[in-house]
Amino acid sequence: MFKLIQNELMKIFKRPGTYVMIGLLVLIVGIVGTVIKVQENQSVPNQTNWRQEVQQDLKEYKSELDDMGNGNTTLTNYLKKEIAVNEYRLEHNIPPTQKSSVWTFVDECSGIIQFAGLFTIIIAAGIVASEFNWGTIKLLLIRPISRSRILIAKYLTVVSFALMMLVLLFGLSSLIGVILFGTPDQAVPYLNFVNGKVTEQSMFFHLVVFYGLKSITMIMLTTMAFMISAVFRNSSLAIGISIFLMFTGSQLTSILAPKFEWAKFVLFANTDLIQYFEGMPMVEGMTLTFSIIMLVVYFLLFQFLAFSVFKKRDVAA
């Protein structure tokens, strides 16, 4: 299996387009860092009155919570979290906004994961379809290796490429963050709210988990693109559908969510697991367990379609 994955990675990195995508990722991170640095030099945030601002927010949150009573459970839990976190900030003198540093920059660069996902989708869309288009699929299938193992190797190659892009993004943003903004004067923790209690978490660990959760959409859309590539043997179709859903899936689902309860079964209502830790679920009543189950169901469905069609595909022509 390792030899098959190694062979697939060699195919990917022999293409000039792969290095163009990596170069674009580096360029985007550099541009974001430059823009943030320029903005920071032009306006320095005033943190002297942060306690008054937090106290004002606390008053508003508590008033809104009292007015709600036992209404929207999701919003109630969100308000309780904000109240607890803000009270913790006041008690331990931790301001809500920090001076720009390597960790704030890495956090800002998390939005670039979408571009890493775009590049990974392009790889996933072509890794099977291109074999049929070029006729090289016959050379693969004449080997004494089952079709299932070949397809597993291709999918693991795509996942490996996705992880490479994530590690590159995290490492590059950390490096540029240190160069442009330096390290924080003192270790500032991330305030996590778990089981009704506020706990302190290292920023590095928080950002690693945050990047992992943010990449779920990328992995699911990559799996979808891989499935379309295997089923229809058309990389353009796989890229078009996956990219369209990447940029519109969440928005369309958020429009449906307030009107239809069945929207919670849509893939894009469940890909953002951060909503359970730092916000509110898209549909009231959704839970972290429910979203994980839905993601597993969609993942298995995509894989079932890809493997069942690929194993029966006639390549004699």
Task: Walk me through what this model shows.
- The chain is mostly helical and 317 residues long.
- It folds into two domains: 2-40 and 100-312, no CATH class; 49-97.
- It contains 13 helices and two strands, in the order ααααααααββααααα.
- The protein has helices at 2-13, 16-42, 50-68, 73-92, 102-108, 113-134, 137-141, 147-181, 203-214, 216-232, 235-256, 275-278, 288-312, and strands at residues 190-194, 197-201.
- Strand 1 (190-194) and strand 2 form a beta hairpin.
- Helix 2 (16-42) runs parallel beside helix 8 and helix 6 (113-134) runs antiparallel to helix 8.
- The mean pLDDT is 85.
Q: How do you describe this structure in short?
A:
The protein has 317 residues and is mainly alpha-helical.
Defining traits:
single chain, 317 residues, mainly alpha, two-stranded antiparallel ribbon, 13 helices, 2 strands, 72% helix
Secondary structure tally, helices: 13
> How would you describe the oligomerization state of the chains in this entry?
single chain
Count of folded domains = 2
The side-by-side strand order for the widest beta sheet comes to 1-2
Task: Give the uncertain stretches in residue-range form.
Answer: none
Please identify the structural class as seen in this structure. mainly alpha
End-to-end separation: 27 Å
Shape: globular
Helix percentage range:
over 70%
Record field, number of beta strands: 2
